[in-house]
Specification:
single chain; about 140 residues; 6-stranded antiparallel β-barrel; 3 helices; 7 strands; about 40% strand
C-alpha cells in the first residue's frame, strides 16, 4: 500500500453540481489490490461538514475528484462509497473506498461544461479553455459551493 496527502476534494451531486469540500486534512491510500481500490479520508471541521453531508446523502456511488500530493497535480476522478463517518471533537472523518476512473477525459469534459454554463462562447470560450486546461484549476458549480 502507498499513502498520499489529499490536497483537495470535490463531490459531484446527483444533479451534476460540484461541491468543493474544505479539508482540514486528508489522506489517500492506494491499496494496490486486484480491484485497484483506494481509501480516501476527508477530515473536515464541523462548520464545513454540512455541504459534504448534503453531497453524499442518498448516493450509493459517489463521483469525486481528488488532487493528491501537490496542488499542481491533475485531479484524479473516483467512483466511491462511504465506509464510515465519525465525529471527533469539532471535526468529522469521512472514509471513502473507491476506484480511479479515467480522469483526464472526465476533467476535460467537466471543464468545458463548466465554462459553457458560465456563459462563455466563441473565441473567449476557446482561449479560456486552453488557459484552464493547462493550469487545471478546481472546478466550481457556483459560488455557494
Amino acid at each position: 500500500m502507498k499513502s498520499f496527502r489529499l490536497i483537495s476534494l470535490q463531490i459531484f451531486t446527483t444533479d451534476k453540481q460540484i461541491v468543493n469540500i474544505e479539508l482540514t486534512e486528508g489522506l489517500t491510500i492506494n491499496k494496490e489490490d486486484e480491484q485497484n481500490r483506494w481509501l480516501i479520508e476527508a477530515f473536515v471541521h464541523s462548520d464545513h461538514y454540512p455541504p459534504l453531508a448534503r453531497a453524499i446523502d442518498a448516493q450509493d456511488t459517489i463521483r469525486m475528484q481528488a488532487t493528491i500530493t501537490k496542488k499542481e497535480n491533475n485531479p484524479a476522478s473516483f467512483r466511491a462509497q462511504v465506509l464510515t463517518i465519525k465525529k471527533v471533537d469539532d471535526f468529522y472523518s469521512v472514509l471513502f473506498e473507491g476506484q480511479i476512473v479515467s480522469s483526464h477525459i472526465e476533467y476535460t469534459e467537466l471543464l468545458l461544461e463548466n465554462l459553457i454554463k458560465s456563459g462563455l462562447n466563441g473565441d473567449e470560450l476557446i482561449n479560456t479553455f486552453k488557459e484552464r486546461i493547462r493550469s487545471k484549476p478546481l472546478l466550481y458549480a457556483d459560488k455557494n459551493n
